[in-house]
Amino acid sequence: MAEFDVATAAVQAALDAGARYADARVMHRRYESMSARNGEIESLIQDESAGIGVRALVGSGWGFYAVPDLSESAARAAGERAARIAAASGRVAGPGSSLLPVPASTGSWSSPCAVDPLSVPLSEKGDLLARATGTSREHGADQAEGLYQIWDTRKWFVSSEGHRIDQHIRESGAGISATVIGDGETQRRSYPSCRGQYGSQGWELVDSLDLTAHAARIAEEARELVTAPLCPAGETTLILGSEQMALQIHESVGHAIELDRILGWEAAFAGTSWLDLDQLGALRYGSELMNVTIDPTIPGALGSFGFDDEGTPAAKRDAVREGRWVGTLAGRDSAAIAGLDYAGSVRSDGWARLPMVRMTNVGLEPGPHTLDEIIAATDDGVLMDLNRSWSIDDKRLNFQFGCEIGWEVKNGRRGRMLRNPTYTGIGPQFWRSMDMLSSETVAWGTPNCGKGQPGQIGHTGHPAAPARFTNVRVGVRG
Amino acid sequence: MTSPLDLAGRVVELVRQVAGPGAEAEVGTEYAELALTRFANSFIHQNIAEAATTVRLRLHLDGRTATGSSTVVSGEGVRDLVERTVAAVRHCPPDPGWPGLTAPTTIDGSGNWDEATAAAGPEQRAERVREFVETAGGLEAAGYCRTGQRAGAFANTAGHSVTGRSTEAAMDGIARCGGADGMARLGSFRLADLAGGILGARAAVKARAGVAPVELPPGRYEVVLEPTAVADLLQNLSTHGFNGKAYNEQRSFAVPGTEQFDRSVTLVDDALAGPALPFDAEGTGRAPVALVEHGITRTVAHDRRTAAEAGTTSTGHAVPGGAVTGAVPLHLGLAPAGSPNGVTRPGEVSGPVVDADSAALVAQVRRGLLVTDLWYTRVLDPRSLVVTGLTRNGVWLIEDGEVAAAVQNFRFTQSYPQALAPGAVLGIGRHPVLQSQTFSSAWWSALPLRLASWNFTGGASG
C-alpha cells in the first residue's frame, strides 16, 4: 500500500473514532554512522526505521499513537487508538484546543544533495576517519576520535484538512577530536566543531571539511593546552568564535523563544522561558547589533525543510530585530492560544514521536566587523572558541559555558593560549553587552538538541559569526 | 505475533544462511509498549503511546565487526537487515578487540513484571494525573505519568539464548506557586505503587514553602541533597566514572582498590531490583555489582569488549551502541545507612522537607542548604568529574536544624567525587527512592545525603 494511502487510512480511522482533526506521518529513515579511534575503525552502525504516527484531537484533548507497521489495518488501528487516547485526555481537560487556520498545503520537497551519502563506499568513508584519527594520534593525541553520521529520511504527511506532502531530507556531517590525558584532567581539541559540522546536504559537506588537513593541528593544540596557564578568573571583555556563538544562540535565544516553553507546556521538564508574551515586540533582548532570524529556507543548513511536521510551508521570520524581541518558534496549536498568526516550527525526530515546537535555523545576521578587527580593537580580554560544556537554567537565563580553548587578548593582539576557559552570565545582560559582531558567518549544524518527553533529538542550524561582549565573568571553576 | 525469542532465533538462522557457518552473530530483540501522559497548566496536553519491535544485530565475520538495527521486522525487512549488515562487515577493517560471544549460560530471574501495569491504558494514567492536579490544591501543576512493558530476547550463534520481560511506571510532577516550583518523583515496576494524590500534595507543599525566596551569596555551603538531587550524582558517576570504556581510556576518576569515597558510601548497580530485563545487550546475565564498598572503589562496569581490554570479565553492562558509549551501570543505587528499619517508605512530614529521611538529616545541620533537585548538569572535565549545573524545584536555608527560609536558585561548579570524598559525607538516608529517566532504561535508587560542602559559584543574578 502506498505511503499516502496508509496515512490517509489512519486519518480516516481517527475521524471515524470521533476525532475532529487528525494527521498522520509515515516516515522511513536510514541512519549510518561510523566512528574511528586512533587510526582504527571503532564502530559501524546502520539502522533502518519505518512507521506511522497519528495525531488526533477529540474535544479539547490530543492523542498520539505510533506503530512500525505500514499495513492498512495497522494504520486504521493506530488512528483509532490515537482517538481513544485523545478521549482519555479529556478526563483532565483544559481550555478548548484549536489550530491556527492555514491553507492545506500539498507538494514535495527534497534537500540539496550532490553526492548521495549512502552511496559513498564504506571503505572510502572508513579510510577518511582512519587517516584523520591516525594523523592526530601520530601528532600527540592520547585519544584521537572521528565520527560521521548520515540520515536519509522520507516522510509522507496527510491531514484531515487536506494536507498531502512528501519530503526527502538527506543530512550528513562529520568531525574529529584529539584528547590528551593530563595530570588529573583532560584537554580536547576538535575540528570543525565539538560535534562536527552537519547540514541538510550530501557527502559533499564532509568532503569540504578536509578533516585530515586539521588532524595534526588539533592534536598539537590539545597537548599544548595541558601545560597552558589557566584562564584567569574575573570580569573582562570576551570574544567568542563562531562555533561557540552558535551554541550561545541555540541555548540562550533559540530555546527561549520556543512558544511551548513560553506557554508553560514544558514547565516540568525542559523548563519555561524568561520571555513573557506581553513583551513581544517591545522587549530589548540585546544590543542593536543583534538580529536573529528563524529561517528554515537556508539551502543546506541542518534546520532546513520544505514543510514542518504540521504541513506549514517553510518561511523566514524575524525573532530579534535590532535587539528587540519580535518573534517566536510556534506551532499551529500554540500559535492559536498565543494569538499569533504564524506557525511553521513543529517537528518530530521520527515516526514514533509527537511533533513539537523545535528550532529550525535560528541564527544571527552578520555584523560589520571581522574577527581580526575585533581583536585589534580589544585592549584586554579573552578569546574563546569551540564548546566543551554547556549548562543553562530552566528559564534560559543563567548560563555557564566552557570552551576547549582560549587565548589572551592584549593590546589588540592574540596572545598565549589559556586552558579551561569558562564564562557565565544572564542572557539579556549578556546580549545587551555585545558591541562588535563579525560578518564571517558559518551556518553551524547541531545534530543533538534534546527536548521533550519522551526525549527527542532535534537537528538545528545556527548561522553565527564571532562577536565581542563586555564585562563578562570568566574563569569559573570547581 | 512472533515472540522476541522466535524472532531472534530466526535472525540467527538467517545470518548462518547468508554469511555462512563461520559468522559470529548476536541478536537482541525487544517488543516494547510505552505510553506517557503529560500535563501542564493543570490539564493533559500531550498523550502518547507507541508499540514497536526492534531487532539489533552485531555481526563478526572474517575478523571484522558491524552492527545494524531495524524496526522493520517482516520477513523481507529482517532479511534486508541481515544482508545489509553482512555487506557492511566486509568493508570494515579488522577488529582485533573482538571479545567473542557469550557462552550458553542460564541467568537469574526473568524480570519484574506486573500484569496490571502492562494492561494499563490512558484512562489509568489520566486518573493519576487527575489526583495529582486535585491534591495540588489549585496550584498550577505539570508533569507526567507513564507506563510501559518490554519483552526481550537474546540469541547468538554460540547457542546462547535468554529471554525476559519487565514492566515500568513512573510519575514526575511539579506544582507552581508564586514563581516557586515544588516537585515529586517516583518510579516502580508497578503502577499501583504510584499515588498521584500523595505526589501532588508533596509537590504543592514544597511549592508553597518556596515562595518569596531570598538571594544568598555564592560560596561553599553544607547541603542536604534530597533523593531527586542525588539521582543526578548517580547518573554522572555512572556515565563518566564507572564506565568501563572511560576507565580504559583513562578518562575516569575511578581507581579500583583505592579509598576514593567516604566510608559511608556504598554504590551497587542492581538491574534486577527495578524495571529492567535480566540480561544485557550481549546476553550476559545481570546481577548486583558493588562498584564502591565502604568508600573503596572496587570495580567499574564492563561489557565483554571493555572487560577484555582490562583483563577481566563482563559485569553485564553492555548497552546498544556500547562500542562508542562504553559500558554503563544504568541501575546504580546508594546503599542506605544501616537497615531500613523494616519500613518501605519514609513517613510524610510537613513543609519543604517531605520525608522523614531528609528531615532527620536536616535536623543535624547548623547552617546549610536543603536542595531538592539539580538541573542541566554538564561535565567540565570527565577525569576530575567537575560538573556545572543549577539547583531547581526548591532550595532552603537550614539554620539550627530547621528550615529558615526559601532561597533563590544557585549555579554550582563541583567535582562529584570530591563531594563524596572521605570525610565529606555527614549523613545518608535509610529509604531508597527509585527514579527513572523518561523512556530510558536508566533507573537510580537514591537516598538523601548530607554533605560537608558544595561549591555554589553563582546566584540568580549571575
Could you please describe the fold and organization of this structure?
The complex is a heterodimer of chains A (478) and B (462). With 478 residues, chain A is of the alpha+beta class. Chain A has two domains: 3-226, PmbA/TldD superfamily (PmbA/TldD fold, 2-Layer Sandwich); 234-474, no CATH class. Chain A is built from ten helices and 23 strands. In chain A, β1 (21-37) and β2 form a beta hairpin. Chain A is globular. The termini of chain A are far apart. With 462 residues, chain B is of the alpha+beta class. Chain B has two domains: 4-209, PmbA/TldD fold (2-Layer Sandwich), CATH 3.30.2290.10; 219-458, no CATH class. Chain B has a six-stranded antiparallel beta sheet with strand order 3-2-1-4-5-6. Chain B is globular and about 70 Å long. At the A-B interface, β2, β3, α2, α3 and β16 of A face β1, β2, β3, α2 and α4 of B. β2 of chain A pairs parallel with β3 of chain B. Chain B: This is Metalloprotease TldD/E C-terminal domain-containing protein. Chain B: It holds the Pfam family PmbA_TldD_3rd. Chain B: Residues 218-421 form the Metalloprotease TldD/E C-terminal domain. Chain A: Keywords: Hydrolase, Metalloprotease, Protease.
- Tell me the helix content of chain A: 10-25%
Instruction: Categorize the overall geometry of chain B.
Output: globular
How can the largest sheet of chain A be summarized? 8 strands, mixed
Give the rounded overall mean pLDDT of chain B.
Answer: 94
Major sheet of chain B: order of its strands?
Answer: 3-2-1-4-5-6
Largest sheet of chain B: 6 strands, antiparallel
What is the number of independent domains of chain A? 2
**Portion in strands of chain B:** 35-45%
Total DSSP helices of chain A: 10
What's the multimeric state?
Answer: heterodimer
Instruction: Give the low-confidence spans of chain B.
Output: 340-344
Kindly estimate the percentage of residues of chain A that lie in beta strands according to DSSP. Answer: 35-45%
Helix content of chain B: 10-25%
